[in-house]
Specification:
Pfam families: SRF-TF (PF00319)
Number of helices: 4
Keywords: Coiled coil, DNA-binding, Nucleus, Transcription, Transcription regulation
Structural class: alpha+beta
Largest sheet: 2 strands, antiparallel
Helix content: 40-55%
GO molecular function: DNA-binding transcription factor activity, RNA polymerase II-specific; protein dimerization activity; RNA polymerase II cis-regulatory region sequence-specific DNA binding
Subcellular location: Nucleus
InterPro entries: POU_dom, TF_MADSbox, TF_MADSbox_sf
Order of helices and strands: EEHEEHHH
Radius of gyration: 45 Å
Shape: elongated
Length: 192
């Protein structure tokens, strides 16, 4: 017995919002039943966990990076937002994109970098600060040199005093020695 084609009646609404009835015949297709179909992974939800194999992780990153950047572009277009994405691969290579591309860098705003308009002012301020720091260091160096000379003179006086034979000195020489010792004591910051 021959199989008769099934009748199909469709109701549709056309552009004028009027119902239109369409009639036709439906051919039976030789598709397998739902129980006999091959099961595939399809779009199943994957658990969110780190991929342990380094090679598989690198492949996954390279495949998904394009999708990530595309989503950033979509958000930028649909919402009018300024979007920047910075991703580092497991090898440490940076990948970035910005939408719209002519917008000022959001990363610069986040980490506090100056805008391009204030860059000459920043350079001028840093030059002033550096020259001031240089003059302070030069003054400290000169003070250190003077202190070194004074300490060397004091050391020479101490050596002269140690080498002098006090028992053979005249009273005037002893008085000069006493003054030298007081000067050494004052230079070293010692009190009596």
């Amino acid at each position: 017995m021959a199989e008769q084609p099934a009748q199909l009646t469709l109701m549709a609404i056309n552009a004028d919002e009027r119902e239109v009835q369409v009639e036709g015949e439906v051919q039976a297709s030789p598709s397998p039943s739902p129980l006999k179909r091959k099961r595939t992974s399809g779009r199943r939800k994957l658990p969110l966990e780190k991929i342990e194999k380094l090679n598989a992780r690198q492949v996954c990153f390279s495949k998904r990076r394009k999708g990530l950047f595309h989503k950033a572009y979509e958000i930028s277009v649909l919402c009018g937002a300024h979007v920047e994405v910075l991703a580092f691969s497991s090898a440490g290579n940076p990948f970035s994109c910005a939408y719209p591309s002519n917008s000022p860098s959001l990363f610069a705003k986040v980490i506090g970098l100056p805008s391009e308009q204030s860059l000459p002012e920043l350079i001028s301020n840093s030059q002033t600060a550096l020259s001031q720091q240089l003059s302070e260091l030069t003054a400290r160096l000169e003070a250190g040199k003077k202190k070194k000379e004074a300490l060397q003179a004091t050391l020479k006086r101490i050596e002269d005093i140690r080498s002098a034979d006090v028992s053979k000195m005249e009273p005037a020489e002893l008085e000069a020695l006493k003054k030298s010792l007081e000067q050494v004591r004052a230079a070293m910051g010692l009190s009596q």
